[in-house]
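Practice problem: predict the structure.
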Amino acid sequence: MSATMSLFGCAQMAENNNDELFEQSGNTINVTDRNDLYNDDGVRNGNDSRMTNFGYVRHQKSPVPGDTNNYANMPTLNRERVADLISKLCTQLPNVNDVATLVTDDEVLIAYDTDTKNRFETADQVKKTALSVVPRYYHVYVADNPRMIQEIERYGRLDANSRNIDQIIDTTIKEMLKYPQGRKLSDGENANGEMINEMNDRIDRDFNDGSPKRTIPKQTMTR
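Answer:
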């Protein structure tokens, strides 16, 4: 009898310990195959200080009926770190020597110094580098004019609540659009990642696919 109780107690303790691995988050739970439960310190690549382990998280709906979403602990985009990463990656591109990046709530502005002989191709590389980092709804604008680095730097201390910030940013974007922006991203998107009919209406500019401005022929009515 005592042996049976002992086994039951061990099983109960193991179950309790296992429950601690289920971290509740809103109406989902992180199950036990979350990567950091197995590897708190990460796997280092020899003498390299970088972590090489993959990131993996699995979520399941909470078994408790009526649980509501809780976004209090949702991760947010650290715009300063994203801007830092974009600038670092862009300086690894050929012929790109100096890069300044501003990340807002839905736009990336990049000014850079380059000695490239193909401004269009370099602009395309810089833009796509930024797009590989930010969420897909972001729009990216570039300018290969080092004088605009100071222009972007002025906005570094501002935020989305700053007075007239939309008009200020739009004025800078209009100036940046005078420089090569690279290829359009798809048949439904222009070079900056704006969808047709989803353009920034505050700027009120034509759909730009990186090609010379197009004209739409007038339709003639037939009876």
